[in-house]
């Protein structure tokens, strides 16, 4: 198991040391590379707010995995899957978990070795969720309503949380292997126009919860920060 934390240097887009360090960086033009299956390597972000009545999460990723894997995992002390974006390979669906509720969005052409842009929304008032995949919106589906996401939230990229901030299970093999970039999170439902702008790499309002252009994060294990491998990752 790789439990070391490593420091990134602008002069060297790999790692310059094994010293623990929290980052606050403009990652424009960069990507996280998760080069192997592990139950330890991940990127962690602790969120400042204690209550989320709505969520929009956008990211771009590429993988060749032919199994289930987590793309964006949020836990709180009371719920391991407070908000989770997950690929279920068995039923070929992108799924959104909100606490104990889950819905799937099928029909996507989730090709291997191709960058995909994915945005996921959920509103606690209506309970409705929606997913945008490479510029195409899904139908809106009911997930869960009547309660917000509350408590100290931790975001993990690269693993699926089975407990608050950890509990990664190598036997489940939900770890992500591939590259990820342009991760943003908002505490409101982003408008369709803004989502389309994100999809097309046009100007959009950066996330007010997580902003790829000013990201505070902590890396553990074998995760690299590299230059993005394409100019238009859509």
Automatic annotation (TrEMBL):
<feature type="domain" description="Pentraxin (PTX)">
    <location>
        <begin position="28"/>
        <end position="231"/>
    </location>
</feature>
<dbReference type="Pfam" id="PF00354">
    <property type="entry name" value="Pentaxin"/>
</dbReference>
<keyword id="KW-1015">Disulfide bond</keyword>
<keyword id="KW-0732">Signal</keyword>
<comment type="similarity">
    <text>Belongs to the pentraxin family.</text>
</comment>
<comment type="subunit">
    <text>Homopentamer. Pentaxin (or pentraxin) have a discoid arrangement of 5 non-covalently bound subunits.</text>
</comment>
<keyword id="KW-0106">Calcium</keyword>
<dbReference type="GO" id="GO:0005576">
    <property type="term" value="C:extracellular region"/>
</dbReference>
<dbReference type="GO" id="GO:0046872">
    <property type="term" value="F:metal ion binding"/>
</dbReference>
<keyword id="KW-0479">Metal-binding</keyword>
<dbReference type="InterPro" id="IPR013320">
    <property type="entry name" value="ConA-like_dom_sf"/>
</dbReference>
<dbReference type="InterPro" id="IPR001759">
    <property type="entry name" value="PTX_dom"/>
</dbReference>
<keyword id="KW-0964">Secreted</keyword>
<protein>
    <recommendedName>
        <fullName>Pentraxin family member</fullName>
    </recommendedName>
</protein>
<dbReference type="InterPro" id="IPR051005">
    <property type="entry name" value="Pentraxin_domain"/>
</dbReference>
């Amino acid at each position: 198991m790789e439990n070391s934390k490593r420091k990134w240097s602008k002069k060297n887009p790999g790692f310059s040391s094994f010293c623990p360090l929290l980052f606050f960086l403009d990652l424009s033009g960069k990507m996280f590379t998760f080069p192997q299956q592990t139950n330890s390597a991940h990127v962690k972000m602790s969120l400042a707010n204690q209550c989320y009545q709505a969520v929009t999460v956008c990211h771009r990723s590429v993988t060749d995995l032919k199994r289930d894997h987590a793309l964006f995992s949020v836990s709180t002390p009371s719920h391991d899957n407070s908000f989770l974006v997950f690929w279920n390979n068995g039923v070929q669906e992108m799924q959104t978990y909100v606490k104990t509720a889950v819905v799937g969005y099928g029909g996507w052409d989730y090709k291997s070795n191709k960058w995909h842009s994915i945005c996921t929304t959920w509103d606690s008032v209506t309970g409705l969720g929606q997913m945008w995949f490479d510029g195409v919106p899904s139908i809106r589906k009911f997930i869960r309503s009547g309660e917000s996401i509350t408590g100290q939230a931790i975001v993990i990229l690269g693993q699926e949380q089975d407990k608050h901030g950890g509990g990664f299970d190598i036997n489940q093999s939900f770890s992500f292997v591939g590259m990820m970039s342009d991760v943003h999170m908002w505490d409101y439902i982003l408008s369709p126009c803004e989502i389309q702008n994100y999809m097309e790499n046009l100007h959009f309002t950066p996330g007010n919860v997580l902003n790829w252009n000013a990201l505070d994060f902590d890396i553990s294990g074998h995760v690299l920060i590299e230059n993005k491998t394409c100019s238009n990752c859509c």
